[in-house]
Specification:
The protein is α+β, with helices and mostly antiparallel strands. Helices cover about 25% and strands about 25% of the residues. Strand 1 and strand 2 form a beta hairpin. The longest helix is centred in the C-terminal third of the chain and has 15 residues, at about 215-230. It is globular and about 60 Å long. The relative contact order is 0.24. The protein binds N-oxalylglycine and manganese (II) ion. N-oxalylglycine binds next to strand 5, strand 14 and strand 15.
Amino acid sequence: MATATATRLRYEAIKPKIGARVLNTKEELLSGELSEDILALMEERGVLVFPGIDFTDAEQVTFSNSLGGNADELAGQNQDAVFKVSLDEKAQHRNVVEYLKGSLYWHIDGTMNPIPIRASMLTAKVLAPEGGDTLFANTATSYADLPEEKKAALEGLRVVHSLWCSAFYHTPEPTLEQIDDWQSKGEAEIPLVVTNSSGKKSLVLGNTAHYVKGLDMKDSQRILHGLREFATSEPYMYEHKWQVGDTVMWDNRTSLHRATPYDPYCGRMMHRTIIKGGEAWETAAR
Ligand code: OGA
Ligand code: MN
């Protein structure tokens, strides 16, 4: 029951169509009292910034657990730990570095999971001296701004997503062995426009979006890349310039994100947790 002393979520919007800065103290965030409000604000704003919150790893895991649970969907990570985002083989396994190279292009985390990741969260531990910012784009507010005829034309389109499509972004001349490995990770077919249980529609795009089922490659690429260009344009995009200790969390169903280029060996280190998803991509779309 709410009382006069209940902790309130305090925040300010960053841009009209994306982002909010949460101003509560670490103690307030870790109390668990704000969990529902934080998830609601994330769904409304797409990206939440917790400036200089300075979570330890244990605190980041506790906070993630209070929001629905840190998921253990990735190699090298378990539920009680943070996942190290680094492009340096000295800091992270070689195969994980391979996969993280995809983070330099617009993407959604884990599009091939049957239940999509609800949210992802990064805390900056070591910054890149140059580059290494993270860009976010709200694919719900961009979808909402599409002309009605365009929305009607997209209705019912289905897109095949795969890791092997995204791998060509960073490794355009792979060996056959690499292709076999990438393709062994499978593919997933999901709607281009998804509706979540609260009725919000958003676009599912990014470097895993390979082709639109039933269209020829030219039309398919024009649709997927044209929408990505629109969805990541200025009104829908937020660029986070990191300070050590910042945490940023994003609604992974309704956001694209990417890192800007940085030297893989500069020491940049982000600690990631991911919040378990609750509903399939297609819950409300079917
Ligand atoms: C991720 C990711 C971007 C970055 O961890 O999922 O895409 O800026 N990271 O490191
Ligand atoms: Mn990512």
